[in-house]
Design goal:
The protein is α/β, with parallel strands linked by helices and 256 residues long. The protein has one domain: Phosphoglycerate mutase-like (Rossmann fold, 3-Layer(aba) Sandwich), CATH 3.40.50. It is 36% helix and 22% strand. The chain has eight helices and eight strands; from the N terminus they run βααβαβαβαααβαβββ. It has an eight-stranded mixed β-sheet, with helices on both faces. α5 packs across α6. The longest helix has 17 residues. The relative contact order is 0.24.
């Protein structure tokens, strides 16, 4: 069975406005939004997390084409280990698979989560699987646009599909491709957990295409939670403002 490219026309969507006050926001640990969703999630389904990396080192003085070499800070390593420890408490007997992008900060985050969760034969580092590529096609042209419009306006135009595809991938097509790769990854069985560490630029188009929310930032270790069985995919995202949820029916390619 393949997911992603063969959704049914039926879906259920909901958005609950949360609006956490400043004090509650300050007390939220990185990754708490994802962990809160998992706390009440069924434990017998395939669970897939696509999250942003942990707290990274500064990009200051680093050319854009070398930013994949930037790692996470000691604080970022601690945050990711604590995320792994919390994940272990929520799902203590699950097989955990950890993937990451080619960026050093994503790889370091995955290994730190592994250290926190670590248990005999229960964690496997997949490396750059499933492969999550950058949507950027022409870095030089994209930098020019970022310098002209600013980061937030650039992302807004990208999500609005206003930027040519020879500069950055179409946001909707990119979102569909990422979802397909996550849901079709063959190693994860019912009851297993797959965590893929990526970037805010990976998550922006998914949150927009799934929930219609053009968020300006994705917190470290936050992202989307996907719960999948044979017939239904449920996808959730939460931040300080919203709890968003969509549920899609899927069908077998053999039925086409």
């Amino acid at each position: 069975m393949e997911y992603g490219s063969h959704w049914s026309d039926y879906s259920e969507n909901s958005t609950q406005q949360i609006g956490l006050n400043e004090k509650k926001r300050e007390n939220m640990k990185p990754g708490s939004y994802v962990l809160d969703i998992l706390q009440s999630a069924p434990k017998d389904q395939r669970t897939i997390l696509l999250i942003r990396h942990s707290n990274r080192d500064s990009f200051g003085g680093i050319p854009d084409h070398l930013r994949n070499t930037v790692g996470i800070t000691p604080e970022g390593m601690r945050m990711a280990r604590e995320f792994g420890e919390s994940l272990k408490k929520i799902a203590p007997d699950k097989q955990l698979f950890l993937g990451h992008t080619v960026a050093k900060r994503s790889e370091m985050t995955a290994w730190s989560i592994c250290e926190g969760y670590s248990s005999d034969n229960q964690v496997k580092i997949l490396g750059c699987e499933p492969e999550i590529k950058s949507p950027v096609v022409n870095l030089e042209k994209l930098i020019e646009m970022r310098n002209e419009f600013g980061w937030h306006e650039l992302i807004k135009r990208w999500l609005g599909r206003e930027i040519p595809e020879d500069i950055i991938r179409d946001s909707q097509k990119y979102s569909d491709e990422i979802l397909g790769k996550l849901l079709n990854y063959p190693t994860v069985r019912p009851g297993d957990i797959l965590v893929v560490v990526a970037h805010d630029i990976t998550l922006f188009p998914l949150v927009f295409s799934l929930f219609g929310k053009a968020v300006k930032a994705i917190e470290f270790l936050n992202g989307i939670v996907i719960l999948a069985d044979a017939n239904v995919v449920k996808i959730q995202f939460r931040n300080a403002e919203f709890l968003c949820e969509t549920e899609r029916l899927i069908f077998n390619n053999n039925d086409i």
